[in-house]
């Protein structure tokens, strides 16, 4: 009987890619780029196990993927725009808001978020370098409460309110302030549902309340900045390492013999 294989690094994955089979374990992330998507599809078809999960890696790298796959948790009037036709469809029946934002597919820290006066202004630049397809389109909600939630498996959880009176981008990268926040049972359950749907063993979730309604999912990522959080970087990394080791140890119980490549 051939052993199960454990792949601890991306370099090891590339060297040993043809050897992998059902039940083998990948313990590293795959860079999510157009030239790498076929690797994920193939590994999934071969039933290779991954920590983090393949789906969570894809969702973390793509705001468009989040808006499509996690649509049920998103704010109302969240659209994925892939071409001018899909944008025109929104314009034919526009949401009842003045002002819109777009989110660049693979950008973080609010750097890919742009503000538009109206859909016509947006349409004039859609598909150019100023606004490349695909992107996420949402109304500019005026009454918006922003929460960052950090969930590290069952080992750690904290939340804080993010506020920035000088910028519609509420994240701390643009000068926002963080205030500790006690999650309700409903909010905790909401986070668990999102993580289960996206295959997240750990996550940073951005939640939103709009005009007093919510929570909604704004974004989710496997990792993010911890500025404003109580947890320190060293403790954070130790918990992530323990989650990885716990997953590995549980996998070993049903996958013997194994070999680390």
Describe what you observe in this structure.
- The protein is α+β, with helices and mostly antiparallel strands and 261 residues long.
- The protein folds into three domains: 4-61 and 246-254, no CATH class; 76-139, Dna Ligase, domain 1, CATH 3.30.1490.20; 143-240, ATP-grasp fold, B domain (D-amino Acid Aminotransferase, Chain A, domain 1, 2-Layer Sandwich), CATH 3.30.470.20.
- The protein has helices spanning 10-16, 37-45, 54-61, 63-69, 84-92, 119-125, 185-198, 233-252, and strands at residues 4-7, 25-26, 49-50, 79-81, 100-104, 113-116, 135-139, 144-152, 156-163, 177-181, 202-210, 213-221, 258-260.
- The strands form three sheets. Strands 10-9-8-11-12 form a five-stranded antiparallel β-sheet.
- Strand 1 (4-7), helix 1 and strand 2 form a beta-alpha-beta unit.
- The protein is globular and about 65 Å long.
- The relative contact order is 0.16.
- The model has no long low-confidence stretch (mean pLDDT 93).
Major β-sheet, in short?
A: 5 strands, antiparallel
CATH topology of the largest domain: D-amino Acid Aminotransferase, Chain A, domain 1
> What order do the strands of the largest sheet run in, or round the barrel if closed?
10-9-8-11-12
Q: Extract low-pLDDT stretches.
A: none
Supply the CATH architecture of the largest domain.
2-Layer Sandwich
Shape: globular
CATH superfamily of the largest domain: ATP-grasp fold, B domain
Structural class: alpha+beta
Q: Give the fraction of residues assigned to helices.
A: 25-40%
Count of folded domains: 3
- Compressed to H and E, one letter per element, the order equals EHEHEHHEHEEHEEEEHEEHE
Number of strands: 13
Strand content: 25-35%
Q: Roughly how many Å apart are the termini?
A: 17 Å
Protein name: ATP-grasp fold RimK-type domain-containing protein
GO molecular function: ligase activity, forming carbon-nitrogen bonds
InterPro entries: ATP-grasp_RimK-type
GO cellular component, one term: cytoplasm
């Amino acid at each position: 009987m051939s052993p199960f294989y454990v792949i601890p690094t991306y370099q090891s994955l590339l060297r040993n890619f043809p050897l992998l089979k059902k039940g083998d374990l990948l313990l590293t992330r795959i860079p999510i780029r157009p030239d790498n998507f076929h690797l994920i599809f193939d590994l999934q078809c071969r039933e290779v196990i991954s920590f983090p999960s393949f789906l969570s890696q894809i969702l973390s790298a793509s705001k468009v993927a989040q808006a499509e796959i996690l649509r049920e948790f998103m704010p109302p009037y969240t659209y994925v725009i892939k071409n001018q036709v899909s944008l025109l469809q929104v314009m034919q029946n526009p949401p009842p808001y003045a002002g819109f934002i777009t989110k660049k597919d693979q950008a973080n820290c609010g750097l890919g978020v742009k503000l538009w006066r109206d859909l016509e202004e947006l349409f004039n630049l859609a598909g150019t370098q100023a606004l490349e397809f695909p992107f996420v389109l949402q109304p500019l909600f005026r009454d918006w409460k922003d929460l960052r939630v950090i969930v590290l498996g069952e080992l750690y959880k904290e939340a804080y309110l993010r506020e920035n009176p000088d910028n519609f981008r509420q994240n701390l990268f643009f000068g926002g302030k963080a205030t500790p926040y006690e999650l309700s049972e409903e909010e905790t359950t909401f986070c668990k549902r999102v993580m289960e749907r996206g295959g997240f063993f750990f996550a940073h979730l951005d939640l939103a309340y709009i005009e007093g309604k919510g929570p909604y999912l704004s974004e989710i990522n496997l990792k993010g900045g911890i500025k404003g959080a109580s947890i320190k970087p060293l403790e954070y990394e130790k918990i992530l390492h323990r989650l990885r080791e716990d997953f590995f140890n549980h996998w070993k119980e049903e996958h013997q013999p194994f070999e680390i490549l």
